[in-house]
Amino acid sequence: MEKTKQQKAKDFIINNGVIIVMFILVIYTGLTSDNFLTRNNLMNILMNMSSRLVIALGIAGCVITAGCDLSAGRMIGFAACVAGTLLQRMDYSGKFFPNMEPMNVFLALIVVMAICAAFGSITGFFIAYLSVPPFIATLAMMEIVYGISLIYTGATPLGGYVKSYTDIANGKFLGISWLIWIAVVVAVITWFIFNMTRHGKYMYAIGGNPQAAEVAGVPVKATMILIYMKAAAMYGLAGFMLGAKAGGASVQTGYGYEMEAIAACTIGGVSVTGGRGKVSSAIIGVAVFELLKVALQYLGMNANAQYIAIGVVIFVAVFLHNGLGYLLGYGAGKLVGMNTSKKRTISIEVGMQNAGLATNLATTTAQFASTPESAIICAVSCTWHSISGTLLAGLFAMHDKRKEKVAGNAEAAAH
C-alpha cells in the first residue's frame, strides 16, 4: 500500500523533528542577532564541530554494535599530550624532552594514532574474546590510559608548540580551516567504510544480531577488535586536532567528550540497541549540540539554563526516535492480527530491555561525567529511554488487560 502525502509528511516530521526545530531556532537567532549568521561565526562553529565529529564518528561504530566507549575522552587527552611532547620548540623553556628535535608533524600524528589504536585493539580483544561487556572494558581502559597519561606527563601542562603544528588549526585551504577539511575527509572515509566495505556490512550485522551474524560466517571477533581499534585511532586524531587548536594540552584535554559524542549519536539516530546508524546521524547530532549552544548564547539565555534546554532537546529527539517507534510497532502488530497476549508480551519485553539498558547507562555515565553539561546530557538521554520504554510497555499491558477483562465479562454475561 502506497503512502499518502499526509502519511509521508507525518513520517518526515517524525524522522526529522529535531532538525526542523533546530532550523527554526537558527533562522530565528539569525534574524534577531546581527552576528550569528556571519561567515566568521559559522566557521567558528564548524571548527568547534570538527574534532567532536571525529570523536562521534569513532564512537558511532561502537554504538552500532550495541556497545559504547567510555575511554574516548581520556584517550583524547593522552593523544594530545603525546603529540605535545613530540612537537615542542627547541627554545621553549618548559620543553618536555630538552635535547630532542621536534618531530615531523605528520610522523607525530601517525605515532599518536598508532599508540591509541593499540589501546583500542586491547579493548576490542577483551570484548571479543573474553566477553567483557563494552561498558566495563572501556571503563577499565579509561582508567588505565588516564594513569599512563599522569605518569608520562607528571600532570604537567604542555605548550610551546612548533608553528607547523599550530598551523593545522590556524592555517586555511580555500578559505576554510584545515581542521574542517580533516573532519570532512574523516567523514567521507567513514561513510565509505560503513557503506561500501565488508567491514561495514559485518558491523551492522553484528549490531543487529551477533549470534546470527556468527552463524552466517561473519568474523565477529576480528570485526569487533577492528571497530574499537579504528575508533581509538580516531580519538588519537581528535586529540591531535584539539592540541593544535588550543596551542597546549594537559591530561584533562577532552575529558567528558565521550559523553557528548554518545549523546550526539543518539540524537542523530544511531540506535543504542545496535544495528542502525549512519555517518549523517553523527553529523546531525554534533551539529544540533553546537548550534544549540551557540544559538542560546546569542539569545542571551542564562548559561546554567542552557543545560535544561539541551536536556529538553534530547527528550524530544529520543521520544521521536524510540517512543513513537513503540507505538508504531504495537500498531503494526495489531494490523497483522497478533493476539492480545502476544502483543502485550512483546511490548513489555521491548520496554523492559530498553529500560534496563538505559538505567545502567544513565547511572554510570552520570557518575563519570566531567561537567554538569555532559552529566545532564547522558543522564537525561538514557533516563528518557528508560521512562519511555517502561511507561509505554506498561500502558500497552494495562490496555490489553482491560480489553481481556471486558471480553471475559461479556462472555460471562452471555452464559
Describe this structure in words.
The protein has 415 residues and is mainly α. The chain contains 16 helices and two strands. It has helices spanning 5-15, 17-32, 39-64, 72-86, 105-129, 134-153, 163-170, 178-196, 198-208, 210-215, 220-246, 257-268, 279-298, 305-335, 340-368, 372-414; strands at residues 172-173, 176-177. A two-stranded antiparallel ribbon has the order 1-2. Strand 1 and strand 2 form a beta hairpin. Helix 4 packs antiparallel against helix 5. The longest helix is centred in the last third of the chain and has 43 residues, at 372-414. The model is unreliable at 341-381 (pLDDT under 50).
What percentage of the residues does DSSP assign to strands (E)? under 5%
The chain-level mean pLDDT equals 78
- Report the uncertain regions: 341-381
**Number of DSSP helices?**
16
Overall morphology: globular
Largest sheet, strands/sense/barrel: 2 strands, antiparallel
What gyration radius follows from the Cα positions, in whole Å?
24 Å
| Helix-strand topology string | HHHHHHHEEHHHHHHHHH
Let me know the number of strands: 2
Q: Tell me the structural class.
A: mainly alpha
Distance between the termini: 42 Å
Helical fraction equals: over 70%
Strand adjacency order, main sheet: 1-2
